[in-house]
Design brief:
Helix 6 packs parallel to helix 8, helix 7 packs across helix 14 and helix 14 crosses helix 15. 65% of the residues lie in helices and 0% in strands. It has 17 helices and no strands. The relative contact order is 0.14. The protein folds into 2 domains: 197 residues, Hypothetical protein af1432 (Orthogonal Bundle), CATH 1.10.3210; 80 residues, no CATH class. The protein is mainly alpha-helical.
Length: 280
């Protein structure tokens, strides 16, 4: 027996998830600000002890042999760079607040999301897109799963069971049992959060099927990053199903896999560094 629900019914429960932290909203506002600097970023970060702890740990891990211990966020920003600090901040603040109870494995979801975010950065850099925006979209691409589980934990447990038993893509398990999928839900949730339109569209279209196809280069990048993260097994899944890959997305991004394969070791190294920094 299925448990169909409409998109409107799910979004009516959007307040069951925490709101985006104010610090995250402020940092997202800085994504396309070429003049954002260490002082401004540090001022936002200092309001969150968990974020400060992760950033100082990452800075001190990289400061070995550099002389002296890093003891302030401003020092950490100068050492790590604005881009890396912004990524650590977003990931820490979001992962720390968006959790779920068993049988939903929120830690594994975020581990996979960080993998997609790291892949998205590399794909975006290769294609000449905004690397910071790609990281953000990659990090949040599966947030719709959290909302679907929160709305009806028992129904979503059935979705996860179907996915495992039939070895199918999660969106097909969701549509078959719920009538909607997490990409649709995540896109609308991102819209409610007033995220940039390109991020909304990238989240909504990161799975390719007969019902959705990426319509922008950023959406192409997140879709390719999703597939790549599964192919490289960056999410820690014991038995990972690699989603279908859009040849059109690859063509639009100019990706030739025989050449792009040289990026794989750097992606894996960055993912491992992010995993350690975030305690995942």
């Amino acid at each position: 027996m299925n448990s169909f629900m409409t998109l409107d019914q799910v979004l009516e429960r959007a307040d069951a998830l925490p709101a985006l932290p104010e610090m995250v909203v402020q940092i997202l506002d800085m994504l396309n600000d070429d003049h954002a600097n260490a002082e401004e970023l540090s001022a936002h970060i200092n309001s969150d002890p968990a974020v400060v702890a992760h950033i100082l740990a990452a800075a001190n891990a990289g400061a070995l042999g550099a002389g002296g211990r890093v003891s302030s966020v401003r020092q950490a920003v100068l050492l790590l760079g604005v881009s890396r600090v912004r990524n650590i901040t977003l990931a820490t603040a979001i992962i720390d607040r968006f959790k779920a109870a068993p049988p939903f494995d929120a830690q594994r979801l975020w581990l996979h999301s960080v993998g997609v975010a790291v892949c998205a950065q590399e794909v975006a850099q290769f294609a000449g897109l905004n690397v910071e925006t790609a990281y953000t979209a990659g990090l949040l691409h599966d947030v719709g799963q959290l909302l679907l589980f929160t709305v009806d934990p028992q129904a979503y447990a059935q979705v996860l069971r179907r996915r495992a038993e039939r070895d199918i893509d999660i969106v097909f398990a969701e549509r078959g049992y719920l009538g909607i999928d997490h990409a649709q839900v995540g896109g609308e949730l991102a819209r409610l959060w007033k995220l940039p339109d390109e991020v909304v569209e990238a989240i909504a279209c990161h799975h390719v099927s007969g019902e959705s196809e990426p319509q922008s280069e950023l959406a192409d990048a997140i879709h390719v990053a999703e597939v790549l993260s599964h192919a490289l097994d960056l999410g820690g899944f014991d038995k990972t199903h690699v989603p279908d890959l859009s040849d059109l997305s690859c063509a639009r991004l100019g990706i030739d896999w025989t050449q792009f394969a040289e990026h794989f070791p750097r992606i894996e190294a960055r993912f491992e560094g992010a995993r350690i920094t975030l305690g995942l």
